[in-house]
Amino acid sequence: MATKKKEQNHAERLAQEQKAISVSQFFERNRHLLGFDNPIKALSTTIKELVDNSLDACQEINILPELTIQIKQKAEKKFIIIVEDNGPGIVKEQIPKVFAKLLYGSKFSKMRQSRGQQGIGVSASVLYGQLTTGKSSKITSKIDPKKPAHFYELHIDVNTNEPEIVQEKEIEWLNKDHGIKVEIELEGKYQRGRLSVDEYLKQTAISNPHANITYIPPDNKVVKYLRGTKELPKEPKEIQPHPYGVELGVLIRMMKASPSKTLLHFFTTSFSRISAKTAKEICDKANVPLNTKPHTINHQQADALFNSIAKTKIMAPPTNCLSPIGEDVLTKGLKKEINAEFYTAATRPPTVYRGMPFQIECAFAYGGDLKGDELMKIMRFANRVPLQYMQSACAIFKSSQQTAWKNYGLSQSKGALPTAPMVAMIHIASVWVPFTSESKEAIAHYPEIVKEIKLALQECGRKLAIYLRRKKKDAEVERKKSYIIKYIPHMGEALKELLELTDAQSKEIQVILKQQLEAPPEEPKVGTTVKTK
Amino acid sequence: MTAKKQVRTNKETIKVIDSSAKDVYTKILKKKSPEMIFPIRALSNVKYDPKKGFFELLGKYKTRALNVNTIKAFAQTLKMMGLSKNLLNVNDTATKREAYYVSKNWGDARFKEQPESDTVMDDVEAMFGINREQLGFIPEEKGGAVAGELVVIDKDPNTGAKLKIDCTKFGSGAYSVPTSVEHLGFETKAKFILAIETAGMFERLNKHGYWKKANCILISMGGVPTRACRRFIRRLADEKGIPVYAFCDGDMYAFFNIYRTLKVGSGNAAHLNEFFCVPQARFIGITPQDIVDYKLPTHPLKDVDIKRAKDALKNDPFVKQHKEWQKAIQQQVKSGQRAEQQALAKWGLNYVIDKYLPQKLKNDKTWLP
Predict the structure, then answer these.
(1) Are residues B250 and B182 in the same domain?
(2) Which of A245, B11, B265, B336 is 20 to 30 A from A53, alpha carbon to alpha carbon?
(3) How does DSSP classify residue B157?
(4) Dihedral (C-alpha) A481, A485, A486, A492: value to the nearest 10 degrees?
(5) CB of A432 within 8 A of CB of A117?
(6) Contacts of A173 by beta carbon, 8 Å cutoff, 6+ apart
(7) Residues in CB range of B265: below 8 A, 6 or more apart
């Protein structure tokens, strides 16, 4: 047919234009997806990625983090960012790939709670710096006190997504046992305020009170966030994925790649919470023999298996893989950075959304230096990382708005956050935090997550309400006392004037009145009573 | 019905104040909680006996015992009593606003706003059953305007010499009722007193010499009549034995805020109504029936008017006593319309003088009690 031939011609012509674009090229065009949409954000995203990685690295080797972050301003829009840590360092061979190859990392495939997740971050910053300044990034790594450090200058080949080594040498790094120092030059803009690097580091210090953080902003006025606890976060365990959380495509890929000889073996070893009995149940329901070789499963069978998983009752995933901050440490973190009069915290028991274990924590700081005529401030954290952007799209924000704060003694306009001198810090710990986008700014509205956030807020709210009631009562007693002292002299003076009393007589009744009114025992007669005469 | 002379000498008033203060003092010395007893000032504590002709207290009292919550009010009340005593001692007066400013010397016991000081003043007044003028406090507002066949006998405030004020000689102006009227005397041959709601209507009647034509005394109340205005009309009507006719708008506010207060006093100051009321007053217009009879231009009743009407039917002891008023209210609510006295101008500016008032005065069937 003529038309068919024509189509083929089109297709052939198009095929000549079609070629694979590299990941690097893709992100060069879509850098907003990763949080590099504007110069202000680019600066903070880069620092965020580096700091998150450093904290994760220190946690892996159970060491108290010592971080130094410096922002040097080179020109109006040119900045050099230097982040140094005391983590384990990275072995020489891995350095180019970790820093100059996108989507390379160990975290993506692991079912374990960690700050970074996709392994995009650091190399994206390197790429961004390279695109905006043409400069390569400098990385120094030391893995052993007895060995020299390695210094690299790296570039990313945007066509192949492969690292290009500009310079490589061994150097002496004095007074350092191990760690990494990363230097990236980029185009950016430095700003203070709610969305600033300053605020991000302050919040990081709150959610990581075990870290010492030194911050040198462009004006060289050094800020030191000192350690508030020596308690290291519990090392999160790695778990197998839970079947409820696996999508069909992923299931097919897992089966194709599986070395297992039977589905029984595949299910029981690749997932958590699947026993031989459960595996049999799944296969029976799907009408697929239990001894089928996983990589021979066709699409139809996979679909049947996927559906039968949903229909099979499977135990919730283990939750010991989570590492919450803990009520005590949460409070310590808030206390060290916010001067308030009342602190409280609540850590909810772990639970599950879509087969992923997660846990919500919440802490309040109330009063003190905080301003009372403003809306409550929310600090959002995901796996200890502060979330600064897209607040109103986040499940944490929505849940806070929907909480009935009036029940806890705060004033709240309809559908708004309460007006109170208060900071609410909310933390979600999960092996896989469901963000609404790759730039990791807002948490998705899973009903299970929203419910848990609300419960955590309510738990803290109840404690706050008790405090506020007691405070009000104390203030009332105080007010009454001051009231008595304030007006007794006027009683004395008025009677003195009316009845021409002596000073002594006036004093006498003032003394009596003070005794009578301050003594609480017999409840004084009700202020006004109605009676008929 | 004659008005009691309710004049006390300053000495007598001081005695009342002293004994009350003494009582507080002795109670404190005996380590007992001193109390102040006030009649409750509200319509719910008011009864109306048409024979007596005014709202009087039902006898509900509230007791303010001294405790932490009442100590401020207690101290302020004593201070206010002290101020009154000082004024009476030197035979001076202070306006309500001045009293409020005096309190600014009282340190923490001072009043923040004048309504607070007015309330305490009302408390003292009610507690003693003595009107505030006798306690040395005078109101800010003027009493009302008078024109017509009347000679008021007053004294020169400086020399004490007798003054005769002829109310026919004010031309296009009028005699102004003073804040205290107890000392005034009257000479008149007028046949009646016409108490008028609005200054505008008073102007028209005065300008065209209606008082000469009808041989009467015109008094402009200017809205709700002040105590002095009520007392002036009362004394004049009692002493000269002449009737009082009220000529107001045809709406709920005129019926129950203006006319009823003129006739039987207010619910808020029932402890004093005996003196500040004009029981012989009659309402000649504008009645709801007038609106129909004279085909007056109207405005629709507002929600507040309807609420006011329902409230009057349910709670006002005066309305409960008078079937005619109940009917009138129901008629007005049903029609949903109200009319102002100046609406008569529809038939010509002097229609009110030439037709309306003569017709109404002739036919007492068209009045309301």
Answers:
(1) yes
(2) A245
(3) T
(4) 140
(5) yes
(6) A140, A142, A148, A149, A181
(7) B54, B55, B230, B272, B273, B274, B276, B277
User: Residue B119 in 3-state DSSP?
Assistant: helix
Are the C-beta atoms of residues A432 and A475 closer than 8 Å to each other? Answer: no
- Classified as helix, coil or strand, A244 is helix
Among B17, B68, B103, B127, pick the best mutation site for testing chain A contact (most A Cβ within 10 A): B68
Say which of B61, B101, B245, B253 is annotated catalytic. B101
* Known catalytic residue at B101: yes
| Closest CA in chain B for residue A477 | B68
- Give the other-Cβ count within 10 Å of A331's Cβ: 20
Which residues on A lie below 8 Å from B61 (Cβ)? 530-533
pTM: 0.59
Domain that holds residue B92: 10-138
Instruction: Classify domain A327-468 at the CATH class level.
Output: alpha beta
Q: Are strands B244-247 and A385-387 parallel, antiparallel or unpaired?
A: unpaired
Domain A243-311 has CATH 1.20.120.910: no
pLDDT tens figures, B283-333: 998 999 999 999 999 999 988 889 989 988 988 888 888 999 999 999 999
Q: What is the mean pLDDT of residues A409-429?
A: 92
pLDDT for B58 equals 81
Contacting residues of A for B68, CB less than 8 Å apart: 480, 483-484, 517, 524
Length of chain A: 533
Identify whether residues B120 and B157 lie together within a single domain. no
Taking contacts as CB-CB distances below 8 angstroms, the residues of chain A near B34 are none
pLDDT at A520: 55
Complex confidence, ipTM: 0.70
Tell me the per-residue pLDDT of B246-255, one tens digit each, with 9 for 90 and over.
999 999 999 9
DSSP letter (8 states) at residue B339: B
- Domain assignments of chain A as residue spans, ordered by start: 23-225, 243-311, 327-468, 474-518
Cis peptide before B286 (omega within 30 of 0): yes
Looking at the predicted structure, is the pLDDT value of residue A86 above 90? yes
pLDDT of amino acid A103:
64
Where do runs of H (alpha helix) occur along A318-446?
327-337, 395-402
